[in-house]
């Protein structure tokens, strides 16, 4: 189970301030803290913090690369900023993200092939987010087929079934879990699956509890990755325990400590 640390995002006030002031130490501390907490990759998103998204993305990636070589998920809607981030991020990068819209696939899939990157594909098409798992799987299949045609292996595609705030769309998580299960049958090898976890709890009063419970249920459905808050220790413990209960690691009394030791990065 891959946790992509969500905290280096210009939507957060501290990151926005660091970008504007070019405070590399603040970004580096966030990067190192997430890695130490168990993140296997870091999301990197300039957000609305800069009038120069390309320059800001370059600065963010360069700052992070001074302290860790962890894979980076370059998170931007701007193709030039994406290209700039990938060029500096290096091996193991992830494009976050495309959709099932053909014009986006045409731009980002060749970029993924060129840079040896994986890609997150949101199950959104020209009509928006499909209502249920049937529509989402159809979009997922289109993304996987386009990736294969472009020369990208299916297991380098992460399908994001688009989890929405449960306080206004309570039925949505159920459709997401079903989509995760059905995506395992789309190809051989199957695409991976991912969710932007924190979206599910927006507007709720028990955000941490909602996030943790949603993550465990998604893991049980076969989830491979989540963009999530790696600094939430209880969230990480729940993820590790769910992985244990699915028999993906060997039990010992200190299984959480053992997981962190086995996933430690220099």
SSE layout and pairing:
Elements: E1 2-9, H1 13-21, H2 24-37, E2 41-45, H3 53-65, E3 72-75, H4 79-89, E4 94-98, H5 102-115, E5 118-122, H6 133-150, E6 157-160, H7 172-183, E7 192-196, H8 207-221, E8 225-228, H9 233-245, H10 255-262
Parallel strand pairs: 1-2, 1-8, 2-3, 3-4, 4-5, 5-6, 6-7, 7-8
Helix pairs in contact: 2-3, 3-4, 4-5, 5-6, 6-7, 7-8, 8-9
At a glance:
The chain is of the alpha/beta class. It has 10 helices and 8 strands. The chain has an 8-stranded parallel β-barrel with strand order 1-2-3-4-5-6-7-8, surrounded by 5 helices.
Question: What would you say this structure looks like, in words?
Answer:
- The chain has 266 residues and is of the alpha/beta class.
- It has three domains: 92 residues; 134 residues, TIM Barrel (Alpha-Beta Barrel), CATH 3.20.20.20; 35 residues, no CATH class.
- It is built from ten helices and eight strands.
- The chain has an eight-stranded parallel beta barrel with strand order 1-2-3-4-5-6-7-8, surrounded by five helices.
- Strand 7, helix 8 and strand 8 form a beta-alpha-beta unit.
- The longest helix is centred in the middle third of the chain and has 18 residues.
- The mean pLDDT is 96.
